[in-house]
Design brief:
The protein is an alpha+beta fold. It has a domain at about 75-165 and about 195-205. It is built from five helices and four strands. The protein has helices at about 45-70, 115-125, 130-170, 175-180, 200-205, and strands spanning about 75-80, 80-95, 95-110, 125. A four-stranded antiparallel β-sheet has the order 3-2-1-4. Strand 1 (about 75-80) and strand 2 (about 80-95) form a beta hairpin. The N and C termini lie far apart (about 135 Å).
């Protein structure tokens, strides 16, 4: 009889198969193929894209709402050398203008406004609504009209005084015989300046205010 192999030794080929169940075909040790299938990759870029779109939508909505608010505002400013009523605000956002001319007033010239009002217009006068803005324009129009008429009256007075002086000098002679022989020159009629209303007379003292 063949002697059993010593403890810890190896037996003849095939002797070790007894007592060990065979592994399933196509598997590795005690793990099946399902254990080695990689989980489906997640898509973090999709979630990130959704967040970006939402953020842009919020920013865009805020900008649009802000722009719409600016278009409810009005201010009085300078356009060339006269007063104009603007819709919007005087500040610009980068290359975007936030205002436009609502109505130009070439009849209200800046040079006829008192210096302090001229500076205010050039720096812009903000008004909350179009009614207040139009009221401010009417106020400036009345002041400019009063100052313009006052300047024209003063110019007419100066011209009349100069003309009177010239006529007086021309009519002065030292010889009565010569004067009687000379043809009498007609006296010119003074040129009147524009008249001022009672309200405009009250505004005239403001014309030189700094």
């Amino acid at each position: 009889r063949t002697a059993p192999p010593p403890a810890g030794g190896f037996g003849p080929p095939g002797s070790g198969d007894n007592g060990y169940a065979g592994m399933p075909e196509g598997s590795y040790d005690a793990y099946t193929d399902e254990d080695y299938v990689k989980p489906r990759a997640r898509r973090p870029w999709l979630k990130r894209s959704v967040y970006i779109v939402l953020a842009l939508a919020v920013i865009g909505g805020g900008l649009y709402g802000g722009y719409r608010w600016t278009q409810t505002q009005y201010y009085v400013g300078a356009q060339d050398e006269n007063v104009a009523l603007f819709q919007g605000i005087s500040q610009d956002l980068a290359w975007i203008s936030l205002s436009k001319i609502e109505k130009n007033h070439p009849e209200i010239e800046l040079k006829y406004l008192p210096p302090y009002q001229r500076k205010q217009v050039e720096a812009t006068i903000a008004e909350g609504n179009i009614a207040d803005a139009r009221e401010k324009v009417a106020e400036l129009a009345a002041q400019a009209s009063a100052c313009k008429k006052n300047a024209q009256r003063r110019a007419a007075d100066a011209e009349n005084r100069a003309r009177a002086s010239e006529e007086k000098a021309d009519g002065t002679t030292g010889n009565s015989d010569t004067s009687s022989a000379q043809e009498t020159k007609p006296t010119s009629t003074p040129t009147p300046g524009p008249s001022l209303s009672e309200d405009e007379k009250k505004l005239v003292p403001q014309c030189g205010k700094q």
